[in-house]
Design brief:
The protein is mainly α. It has one domain. The protein contains three helices and no strands. The longest helix has 28 residues. 0% of the residues are buried.
Length: 69
Amino acid sequence: METITINNVYALLQEINHRLKTLEIEMHELKEHEPELRPEFIEKMKKRANEPTVKIGTLENFRKRYNLD
């Protein structure tokens, strides 16, 4: 059985901290390259959110409605 010392714990914490910082940097870089939504797209989606929904019911009704049989 391996003896755990404070130095071992400290070394592991440093490694975890380093990995965490690396992940934070990578996430920040990914976020910078993420495309932004155009304002007109956002407005279009807001309008769609207010449209009435169509109740279809079961999968069988869906297939009949859209001729998927």
